[in-house]
Amino acid sequence: MSSREYLSGLFSLDGRIALVTGGSSGIGRGIALALGRAGASVVIVARREAELAETVSELTGHGCRAAWVSADLATREGVRTAAERAAGIFGEPDILVNSAGINLRPPMSELGEDVWDTTMAVNLDAPFLLGQRFGPGMAQRGFGRIIHITSQQAHRAFVQSGAYGVSKGALESLARSQAEAWSPHGVTCNTLVPGFVMTPLNARLSADPAKVAALADRTLTGRNGLAEDFAGAAVFLASAASGYVTGQTLFVDGGFSVH
Ligand SMILES: NC(=O)c1ccc[n+]([C@@H]2O[C@H](COP(=O)([O-])OP(=O)(O)OC[C@H]3O[C@@H](n4cnc5c(N)ncnc54)[C@H](OP(=O)(O)O)[C@@H]3O)[C@@H](O)[C@H]2O)c1
């Protein structure tokens, strides 16, 4: 067996179908591109059509099978509709990546019910509902990969964690509950934990060079994250190689969390 065949047996996503929420921007976009280039047919879900179309065109430019669904994951009806439309394109997904997320950051004393509800809806309810929709089918077919994107704020409070940190902490618990339920049937459920990644989510923080430098100093690698830093970890967690890894949180943060 050649090294290429060996690596392909471990990591190739040929023939797999992936659904990536938030796949039109930032970390989700980096992951969608990686899964597609590793062989998966990819459907990305977000609201803005121009960004969705641009990412799909980059994927197809690499020779990948890709499509998009525009939907608002802040409502349960929106999630349900998105799931059916996405599954109608290439078929039921083998890989589900929940990267769509919002971070509204009001000071805790001003955190109202509206921000709490929207944060939970996008960051926690949508991953839960998509898991309920696709997890049992993955288990029935004997293979599945669920990957959530959480945050340092699932583990520690800083830069106004508020409702956001709560939603991400719960998302890590959700991964463990899903792993308990479906891993006996070949479905692994894990979370990737970014550090500070320069994406539109952080536009305000990223505009302050002193804060950006201070955050880079908190890593061991000496720099902040890039969307492409998630490619290898996502392909690993989506592939056959990670079949014995489940319920885990993998920090892709340049060492931010360990000192
Ligand atoms: N960047 C960081 O430093 C960092 C750190 C820790 C964790 N994270 C997590 O990583 C994930 C991705 O973040 P990012 O930095 O890549 O952010 P981003 O560039 O702002 O991307 C967020 C994605 O989610 C989609 N989205 C947001 N609200 C949505 C809704 N209501 N319905 C459907 N789609 C929605 C956005 O598209 P539309 O706006 O077009 O809908 C976009 O595709 C998030 O879960 C975030 O919490 C990021």
Under CATH, the homologous superfamily reads NAD(P)-binding Rossmann-like Domain
Q: Which structural class best describes the helix and strand composition? A: alpha/beta
The number of helical elements comes to 9
Total beta strand runs: 7
Sequence of strands across the biggest β-sheet: 3-2-1-4-5-6-7
Bin the helical content: 40-55%
Beta-strand content: 5-15%
The run of helices and strands is HEHEHEHEHEHEHHHE
Could you say which overall geometry the principal axes of the C-alpha atoms support? globular
Give the radius of gyration.
17 Å
Question: What's the rounded overall pLDDT mean?
Answer: 97
Runs with pLDDT <50, length 5+? Answer: none
Instruction: Please tell me the total number of domains.
Output: 1
Give the N-terminus to C-terminus distance in angstroms: 42 Å
Q: Quote the CATH topology.
A: Rossmann fold
Named once each, the bound ligands are: NADP nicotinamide-adenine-dinucleotide phosphate
Molecular structure report:
This protein is of the alpha/beta class and 259 residues long. It is built from nine helices and seven strands. It has one domain: NAD(P)-binding Rossmann-like Domain (Rossmann fold), CATH 3.40.50. 46% of the residues lie in helices and 15% in strands. It has a seven-stranded parallel β-sheet, with helices on both faces. Helix 2 packs across helix 9 and helix 4 runs parallel beside helix 5. The chain starts with a helix and ends in a 7-residue tail after the last strand. The mean pLDDT is 97. The structure holds NADP nicotinamide-adenine-dinucleotide phosphate (NAP). The site of NADP nicotinamide-adenine-dinucleotide phosphate has 28 residues, from helix 2.
